[in-house]
Amino acid sequence: MKIYTKTGDKGMTSLVGGTRVAKNSVRLEAYGGVDELNSYLGFIRSFEIDTAVKQEIIAIQNILFSVGGNLATDTTVEGIKAKLVVTEEEVIRLEQAMDKMDMELPPLTSFILPGGGSAASVCHIARTVCRRVERRILDVAEEYPVDELLIKYINRLSDYLFVLARKLAFEAGVEEVKWGSWKK
User: Which of 5, 30, 119, 157 is the one with CA 20 to 30 A from 55?
Assistant: First the structure.
């Protein structure tokens, strides 16, 4: 199988199911953003971080493949779409991971600036990409049915990435910079 098909050379591509759409359609913006987010998660895994966190990220990356596949599937292809769902258990898993990390961190008393070392900084970038992906998915939801758990998962994932950024900065010994600190 060749990677290039030449079928997209004129700005169109096919959804799973065969429907042709413009490459700048809301669907492609959404699942392209999911792919970008997934790539940043891979970047986070490239750092020297806890193995358990790496495994957690791999699980999230696999779920994001399902999210992207769901968004890339034509609404008329229910057989495939039914296999590409996000479950409430996966949302709960993110919440539990955040709760566990939060217990190890100093309390958050003000807004903080993104940063905190290389791995934490990439987490912050991934968090902002995740927020953009959430907005693009909401754009899709205005035109096509979108599973509410998928939206909930992406929303929770951005929170997870914020807490993970704090954890990675804390473990690296990098002090959080509070918003407004430049005024002092």
Answer: 30
